[in-house]
Amino acid sequence: ALKSQMRQAGAVHHLIPLLNHNQNVKFLAIVVDCLYFLVIGNQEAKTVMLEMGGTQQLIGLLFNHTQQYPKLIQNIIRLLKVLSTCNQNKQAMLSMNAIQPLSSHLMTSSAANSQGTSSNSRDIITNCLMILRNLSDAATQLTGLAPFITGLLSFLSTSQDPNHIELTAAILANLTVNEANKIAAIKSSAIPVLL
Known about the structure:
Oligomer: single chain
Order of helices and strands: HHHHHHHHHHHHH
Radius of gyration: 17 Å
């Protein structure tokens, strides 16, 4: 009930501009977290995020922020996971080349996870894979995905997590509907990896 009251009072509208005007990563992490709780389960709030440029700003933050403050990255990716279930946000994320930073954070977190250097890395990996799975059914006609497909196959061949394996296989299944992606996957040893 409180979240509903906050949405009706325009909290989403007031929080989105804060993403653009503050470089304090701890402050940004809190703003993104607040938006997550307001947007989850509410289609209207997801639409407002897109219409006010919030989705675009989140992708921009992903491109511009490395793992210097993992909580910010974790919160952005968690919010993008919720937004990626909305068709309009999904298309916008694809048009902003969201696959690139998501893939980068996936691989960085995977490396940190295998070395045991990040406690947040497993959540980031899972959420990145869920977003990419959500985007992949609408990304079948995108070109230039060969490096991404190669990275997914490499990740698949080393992952020990059944959930991560399932999500990665689902992404690859969607992307390889496209002939060029199918060829790229085969060139990257997809068949032996999958077998």
